[in-house]
Amino acid sequence: MDVLQHCVDYDVIGSGKFSSAAVIGLDGELLAASEGYAPSPQERHAIVDGFEDLSRVEAAGLKLCGQKFFFISFTGRSLYLKRGPDGAIVVKIKRSIIVAQYVAPIQAPEAGPILESIADELISAGY
Q1: Is 114 helix (H, G, I), strand (E, B) or coil?
Q2: Pfam families in the record, alphabetically (predicted)?
Q3: Which tens digit of pLDDT belongs to each residue from 93-114?
Q4: Segments forming the whole domain that contains residue 16
Q5: What is the Cα–Cα distance from 16 to 50, expressed in whole angstroms?
Q6: What's the CATH code of the domain at 58?
Q7: Residue 52's beta-bridge partner residues?
Q8: Which residues, listed in sequence order, are joined to residue 16 by a DSSP beta bridge?
Q9: Domain total of the chain
Q10: How confident is the model at residue 53 (pLDDT cuts 50, 70, 90)?
Q11: What does the alpha-carbon distance between residue 127 and residue 108 come to, in Å, rounded to a whole number?
Q12: Percent above pLDDT 70 for the chain
């Protein structure tokens, strides 16, 4: 199994904090995804472009699999997004971007550190 797919399935989804996740290349290619989760090519490019032009994400949010999420905060490498009681975290690492959605009652303060830790592990492995 591919390292990124293993990460999505066992680390992100396996944490029990996220309902769906994907890893997107900096070229917008879908590198790995949880079952049934596939942001469109336009959505993937908007995610990548969002790190180049944060003002667009702040103003319009991002769509993930057809659902609009609103900008909450940016930590320097991570975008925090919200959609009603649910949310998403988008973390840019060296060569890709991890996108992970969570569903209430899970909230960003408990999901964020887990995804940040997974991102750190991937960075140290060269991803």
Answers
A1: helix
A2: Profilin
A3: 999 999 999 999 999 999 999 9
A4: 3-124
A5: 27
A6: 3.30.450.30
A7: none
A8: none
A9: 1
A10: very high
A11: 23
A12: 99
The SS3 of residue 18 is coil
Using alpha carbons, select from 97, 126, 102, 125 the residue that is nearest to residue 113.
Answer: 102
Cα–Cα nearest to 102, from 123, 78, 81: 81
Structure tokens at 6: 């293993």
Amino acid at 90: V
**What pTM does this model have?**
0.96
**What mean pLDDT comes out for the span 7-33?**
97
Strands 30-33 and 20-25 come out as antiparallel
CA 16 to CA 121: how far, in whole Å? 18
